[in-house]
Amino acid sequence: MDEEWNKLIILYLGSKLRRRMKEIKLNIQFVDFGLKPSYLLDFGVNSLDSLINLIHDLESRRLIQRHLLAVKLETDYIVMNPDVFMEMYTEPYDVVKFVDITSVNTPKVVVKSDALDQVISTCFSAVTDGSLKSADDINMTSVFGVLIGYPVVYWFEPDSLKSAGNSQVVQHAEVLGMTDDEQREVVFSFSYPDNLINVLEKHVSAWFQKWEEAGKWRELFKSVSMKCKRRTLLSMVL
Fold first, then answer.
1. E strands within 104-183?
2. 178, 191, 111, 104: which is closest to 151 by C-alpha?
3. How many other CB atoms sit within 10 Å of the CB of residue 230?
4. pLDDT tens-place string over residues 101-155
5. Please, are residues 154 and 236 in contact by the beta-carbon 8 Å criterion?
6. Sign of torsion, CA 185 189 194 200?
7. Which of 48, 140, 166, 218 could disulfide-pair with 104, CB 3.0 to 4.6 Å?
8. pTM (2 decimals)?
9. Sheet of 97-100, strand order
10. Would you place residue 169 in the very low, low, confident or very high pLDDT band (cuts 50, 70, 90)?
């Protein structure tokens, strides 16, 4: 089965991505089995048609079981599971916490705003319409974070990228799956400001517990875990 996946990835996405075949295969499977709603490919894909054809061929060969969407935004591509997204975000503000990093020295959790409503609306439109339309007043970093399914998503003023080059001490979290042959694979990798740990740690732990109890990971892994480590990031945006 791995050989068939590899042949199709090379056929549609090109031999330059040979080193990332395992990553691509695993993440499409994560989306297919519902471990996460979307997978961002921000590397090496030359056209939307090639990704659409890959997904269609995987489906026709029954290498994936659900109907997945491939969507392009500027130079990036996303593979989405619409059913998982809609199920996950019945109450969006309960699922994801937004952190405003416009000023990296004083990041803050934003409960709700018109700008965040617009981010969420853009995500729902992408899922229902099968397309993503960028706009100057929408923070696409936040859109990607919501689509991928992170429990904490960064937001900043669209006309101010001063946060991009500033370092920040964060809690870096990884959700890991253990395979039958004792290999650890990363399902999610995200962060949140260390100085907001008292505000966000409980939310992240509850998010992981709910995800673990849902049990969709059992299709691919014998166990899962989440680890957090204090780290300094040079950039706070995707």
1. 108-110, 152-155, 168-178
2. 191
3. 10
4. 887 678 899 988 888 999 999 999 889 888 776 666 788 889 999 999 999 999 9
5. yes
6. negative
7. 166
8. 0.91
9. 108-110, 97-100, 152-155
10. confident
